[in-house]
Amino acid sequence: MKRIILIATLLASMLPLSAQTISSAEWAHKYRYAGANAEVTKTSKRPKAVLMGDSITDGWAQKHDVFFTENNLQGRGISGECTAQMLLRFRQDVVALRPKYVVILAGVNDIALNTGYSTMDDIIGNIKAMCEIAKANGIKPVLCTATPADGIPWRPEVTAVVEQVKELNRRITEYAKAKRYPLVDYWTALADKGGGFPRNLAPDGIHPNVDGYLIMEDLLLKKLK
User: What CATH number is attached to the domain comprising 61?
Assistant: First the structure.
């Protein structure tokens, strides 16, 4: 009986490590683009830029894929992701593809507390870490201000969203200037007078429609050229 109990205890002690190993990959969705990445890396053509982000980048590649194909861009957005998750998958989804630029658009999901409590320092720290990894691998970071939001539809308890987005963008802008990284200021081009996303450009107040993406595309191409 004692031997059975000992074996059971040992097995139980192993489960958290195994579960943690599996869930860490799933938590960051590290294999979402495994097939697409393999297709890119087996060719000699280097992408001009990889767009790294969340649902806004994810939806961009789905709603207006011609923008990506015509401009030699790769979209690596995953809906719902926070900056810590992007950082975990940065090497396989960006570095391995050897782009000239990486365009980082992130932070609103952190404000929405998608993965739990996150400070502004956490968000900026993760963005800085992605930039540092990119630079160390010969990839030029292009930073973006977060797109407007005056509320979080799936997390209505989160308050002062406009103020938080403005603070995030202030710090992103400050960091980009300090490092002399190109900055794409989506917020200024898209925000209404109240700091929200006009509903004719983003029906749910968060995710752009094609008209919204067209504005973003013009701003981004100016920086990539």
Answer: 3.40.50.1110
Flag whether 83 is in a domain: yes
What value does the mean pLDDT take over residues 93-105?
98
Condensed to tens digits (0 to 9), the pLDDT of residues 127-142 reads 999 999 999 999 999 9
Say how many domains are in the chain: 1
Which has the closest alpha carbon to 59: 221, 222, 203, 218? 203
Name the H helices within the chain: 2-28, 34-41, 55-63, 65-70, 83-88, 90-93, 108-111, 120-136, 161-179, 186-190, 210-224
Provide φ and ψ at 212, rounded to 5°.
-65, -40
- Kindly state whether residue 159 falls inside one of the protein's structural domains: yes
For the whole model, what pTM was predicted? 0.89
pLDDT in tens, 26-46: 899 999 999 999 999 998 889
